Each structure stands twice: as C-alpha cells, then as structure tokens.
Amino acid sequence: MPARKALHVLVADDVPANLVVARALLESAGHSAHCVADGALALDALAEPPGGRPFDVVLMDVMMPGMDGLEATRRIRALPGPAARVPVLAVTASAFAEDVATCREAGMDAHLAKPIEREALIAALARLTGDARPAPEAPEAAGFADLPLLSRPPGAALVVPGLDPEAARSLAGEFIREMREAADQLRATAPMPADHMIPSAHRLAGAAATLGATRLATAARQLQGEARQMTPEAAQALRAAVLAVAAETVAALTPEGSAGPEGDTVRVAAA
C-alpha cells in the first residue's frame, strides 16, 4: 500500500546490501531515499542536502565503523537550524531494552529492529512525521537452542518488495557473504575478549535476520547483548555455539560444494 505522504529519507548504513534493501522498501512505499555509508557522510548530507531538498527523516544504523549512529545523532542535534530537529529512526540488530535506552539518550526518536519489515517501517515513519497509524508490537526475545534454523524455506529466504527474483538472489548472496565474513572475524582468535566479539555478533545478527535465519539471529543477538556480563568461560562457550549455528545456517542456504564467499551459488530467491 503506497504511503499517504511521500518522504525524503536519508539512510546511513555501512553494509551496501542493507542500503539496497532499505531503498527498495522505501521506494515501494512511495518515499525517496538518499543512501550514505557512515555517520560522517550523514552529517554532511543533512548540512547540505543533495539537490537542496531537506530530509524528512533519517534512517540511522547504530553500529558503523568510523562515526557510528549514536555519535552522528549527537552531532545532528547540535547542528544549527531545522536540521537539528530531523527525526532519527535507529535501525539495529539489537533489540535489548538497554540498547533502546542508549539510542534515546543519544537523541534518536524511535527504534526499529533488523531485519526491517516493510509495514513496521511504514508505521514508524508515519509516527515520526505526523501521519500516524498503528504499529506492530515487537516480538519478545527468546532463547535460540530450540528455534528453527530458518523461518522460511531456503527458496524464499529473501523477499524484498520492488526487487525481481534475480536481483533478490544476488542480494541474498551478499548477505551470505556478510555472514561468512562476520563468522570469520568471530573465530579469528581464541580466546577472544568480549568487546571484540560484539561487532562481529552484530553483523551476524543483521545478516541472519534479513535472510530469516532465526536461530542464528537470536544467538548472535544474545552474544552481542550479554558477552560483557558473562564470565570469560561462558562468553567463549556462547561464541562457539554461535559459530556452530552460523556454519549450519550457511550450509542450509547454499548448495553442497559451495566453495566460499567469492563462489556462492545461492539457493534463495524473491517470492
């Protein structure tokens, strides 16, 4: 269903595939999108909007290298004039209460968990811009051991309105490569300090959730949210469990014999 009010949305995310998904979702809802790769570029775009058209909303990834979404939002709130008051919608794989509170403290107006669901995005944008309509409630977090590996069949693991099946298949390969790279980072050293696990767990959670990899997304979120509070032994054990789920997930989403991140033949397509 098209949006009732067309918005000009600034999207900041360091993962190119996430930008493709965000643009497709926004444009399918009648909005326009300008995409940037980090917080510093988002600040530049707000200070001098391309084409001179101010942005109505910022869709801001929280964890990005360089200037992250939290620092970018703090700086947005210090800008002169109307740009300082632009609504900022935090987008992150983290859905823990403390993460939401941190986003609010930085000046963000609302929080949207990855993967971005089209109707939830439309509802959040409507609330932030005065075109309100009911929003779906966020599901409660659950343990991961008994969750299904995939919430959708591999053949329908990526469904993005506005993308044809071949484009969705290619994009799914990007998310699988993102999962592989994040898992490689997570296993790079053993033992690994908790602070070093969190960025890789964040990457895993985002890519897995987008592909409907329910067990991996939940496990990675648990590692991201709890690693610092765990004993070192417990954190290492959870890291190993996440890596095992990651390997099982990649195997389920790629055919037998897939050779690696540069040679994935993806068994996924748009519905």
UniProtKB/TrEMBL annotation:
Pfam family, any one: Response_reg
Subcellular location: Cell membrane
Record GO terms (molecular function): ATP binding; protein kinase activity
Modification sites for 4-aspartylphosphate: 61
Keyword list, A-Z: ATP-binding, Cell membrane, Membrane, Nucleotide-binding, Phosphoprotein, Transmembrane, Transmembrane helix, Two-component regulatory system
Gene Ontology biological-process entries: phosphorelay signal transduction system
GO cellular component: plasma membrane
Topology in the lipid bilayer: Multi-pass membrane protein
Alphabetized PROSITE patterns for the sequence: RESPONSE_REGULATORY
Domain Response regulatory: start-end pairs: 8-129
Entry annotated with the keyword Oxidoreductase: no
Predominant location category: membrane
Superkingdom of the organism of origin: Bacteria
Protein name as catalogued: Response regulator
Organism: Roseicella aerolata
